[in-house]
Amino acid sequence: MDIEDLSDAERAVWDAFPNADPVDLTGTGEAVRGEVVSALLLGARPAGAGQVPAVRLTGARITGALDLSFAEVRYAVLMRDCVFDEPPALYAARLRQFSLTGSRLPGLNASDSQVDGLLWLRGCRVDGPVQLVGTRIDGTLSLRSACLTDVEAYALTVVRNIDATDAETTGEFMLKGAHVGGTCVLEGARLSNPGGVALDADGIELPSGLHAPGLVADGEVRLPDARIGRRLVLTAARLCNPGGTALDADRARIDGAAVLDGGFRAEGKVSLRSAAIGGTLLLSGADLDAPGGTALNARLVGIGSSLRAANGFRTRGRVCLDAATIQGSADFAGARLSDPGGQALSLCRAEVTGGLAGQGLHAEGEVRLIDTVIGASVELEGAHLSNPGGRAMIGYGLTVSGVVNCNDGFTAAGRLALAGARTGELSFDDASISGFGGLALGLRRVRAEMLWFSRCTLTDGTVDLRHARIDILRDDPARWPPRPQLDGFVYQAIDKPGRLADRLAWLDAADGYHPQPYEQLAAVFQGMGRDVEARAVRLAKQRRRRRTLTLPARAWGVAQDWTVGYGYRPLRAGVLLAALLAIGTVLFAAHHPVPLKKDEAPAFNAFLYTLDLLLPIISFGQEPAFNPRGAYQWLAAALIASGWILATTIAAGITRVLSRQ
Predict the structure, then answer these.
(1) 39-66 pLDDT, tens digit each
(2) What is the pLDDT at residue 658?
(3) Is 528 left (phi over 0), alpha (psi -120 to 50) or beta?
(4) Within-domain flag for 109
(5) Which H helix or E strand runs over 280?
(6) Cα 158 to chain centroid, rounded
(7) Does residue 612 form part of some domain?
(8) Per the UniProt record, which residue ranges are transmembrane (predicted)?
(9) How does pLDDT run across 12-27, given as a tens digit for each residue?
């Protein structure tokens, strides 16, 4: 290059280069041709003695092309607040350090280049595409406070950090397949590509984590198959992609915590499907908005610690944690989940090694816990579940090692369906449940150490306890809803049996007649040494059964009840027998019947004669020897009939009692 052709500004840069002296053209309006800068960097001016040359230029306008494509540049480029007429061309170049702090460019092409030190675009405004495809930066890539357009950095390698704090991008920010040895910082960054992808970091590798608190993204943020060490931090971030996916981190691997709390907001789906999170998933205070769709899809997610979705966590749309594995507790205390007519929370076939906390939870839509395993307790004190006309909570096959507490103001507008659940203690103390279709609380085939059912109010339905097995029943018999389904309900003990009349009313109000509930209660009373109550329950069973029989059978039942109390009141038969014996003895003593064979008849004994009439099998020789006449013949017939009735009812009653022993 002929130095005679250089302008004053270019000559100043030329002369300053060998000693890396700074040149400041701010406010002068003077321009420097890009080819002059290129020539210097490619060795047109030798270094000063004992100096390391560098281009250090501030406030210049760069005209023409700064083209270093395929070149190996041994000197640093430190340009600040410059304005480029054409995009610098750095394709496949090898650079020491390249800094354009505060400059304005129409674009930048540095694909397949290698920077041994820093690539510094801090505060830059780039109006066209920024191309860093396949680029390797051995230092840090700084995009802090930069305004960029269409960043394409596919397969970018940055040995240290990416600092994009407070950066603004328009169009897609492509980091697909990138590898960053340090931390990627997007704190306060604003990424805008409405209706498209704002950040595509598919398969990115970030061993030291992604730090993006306060990130604002208008468009989808994609992190599928990402490998993130330490933590993913999106505290107070705002991700907006209504009707689509706001955050896609499917199959991502995060060594530490995933932090989406402290005012994190997503308009659109947040997807963590099959993600593996080594630490805690923090969602407390987050707001996920996807009405009519899925707000959070974390199906098959693995969480190495706990799930924290309490303290103001709000969703509009389905929350899906089906088949999740949580090596700790899941906390939804105070959360508000809304998916009217849908599934507010689905935690089916999941495994939680700790407990499920839902104190004060508000859920509009189904809460699903089908075939889920909870290692500790389910705490739903004061929770409000609402799905009118449907199921508020479904826990078919739920297994809970601790207790299930639906206490202290727990309300459900919709049926609780817990058929086949297994738990330590199941408590509905001070709970209110309104069902539909005649059923409010479904506990069929439930297994529990204790069922606590005192002060529970059920409306628009009853409770189904068919074939449930409970060790201890703690209830208030006067507070049970009408028509409980109790067939096959087995319990080993009653904590406070209460009044016998209330217990019998509880059984009498059951849906249809089934003998097992009566036998169950009688067995419990008998095990407690309360034989009188046990017999009373079994007598009540026969009376309840009588209502289901035909008219003749009912008449026979009345006879058994009146005479011997179905075998459970045998003294009645003795009293009746004694009364008939006394009546017959008195009457026949006053009016002896005529002997059939006067010479052979034994001496008449009114007592033995009456006894002979009353006892159908045993004979004392009186009844066949004498023949009463007139009204006394009718009296004898009545005594014989009464004896047969008494004998038959006593035999039936004794047989029934013995068969229950």
Answers:
(1) 999 988 887 777 899 999 999 999 999 9
(2) 57
(3) alpha
(4) no
(5) none
(6) 40
(7) yes
(8) 571-590, 602-622, 634-658
(9) 999 999 999 999 999 9
Structural domain for 582, as ranges:
567-660
539: left (phi over 0), alpha (psi -120 to 50) or beta: alpha
**What is the predicted pLDDT for the residue at 378?**
96
Residue with tokens 């040895």: 181
**Would you say how long the chain is, in residues?**
661
**Cβ–Cβ under 8 Å, residues 604 and 585:** no
Q: How confident is the model at residue 656 (pLDDT cuts 50, 70, 90)?
A: low
Q: Does any domain span residue 632?
A: yes
Mean pLDDT of 134-154: 96
- pLDDT of 415 higher than 90: yes
Percent of the chain as helix, strand, coil, to the nearest 5? 20, 40, 40
Give, for 135, the enclosing helix (H) or strand (E): none
pLDDT at 650: 66
Enclosing H/E stretch for 620: none
Closest CA to 377 of 337, 419, 330: 330
- Cα separation of 401 and 632, whole Å? 76
Q: Which residues, 6 or more positions from 2, have their beta carbon under 8 angstroms from its beta carbon? A: none
Which residues neighbour 660 within 8 Å (Cβ) at sequence distance 6 or greater? 519, 522, 538
Confidence (pLDDT) at 422: 96
Q: Which residues contact 551 (CB under 8 A, 6 or more apart)?
A: none
What is the number of domains present in the chain?
1
Compute the distance between CA of residue 378 and CA of residue 218 in angstroms, rounded to an integer: 38
The mean pLDDT of the chain is 91
Rounded alpha-carbon distances, angstroms, from residue 165 to 198, 257, 571: 16, 21, 95
pLDDT of 372 reads 97
Task: Give dist(CA 84, CA 73) in Å, integer.
Answer: 20
DSSP secondary structure of 18-78: GGT-EEE-TTT--EEEHHHHHHHHTTSSPPPTT---EEEEES-EEES--B-TT-B--SEEE
Segment 617-626 mean pLDDT:
78
Q: In b/e form, how buried is each residue of 469-507, taking b as 16+ CB within 10 angstroms?
A: bbeebbbebeebbeebbbbbbbbeebeebeebeebbebb
The pLDDT-based confidence of 317 (bands split at 50, 70, 90) is very high
Is 201 within a domain?
no
What's the CA gap between 303 and 298, in Å, rounded? 10
User: How far, in whole angstroms, is CA 498 from its chain's centroid?
Assistant: 37
The residues pairing with 276 across neighbouring beta strands, listed in sequence order, are: 253, 302
The two beta strands, 626-627 and 594-595, are antiparallel
Contact (CB, 8 A) for 422 and 446: yes
DSSP 602: P
Pick from 420, 376, 426: nearest CA to 397: 420
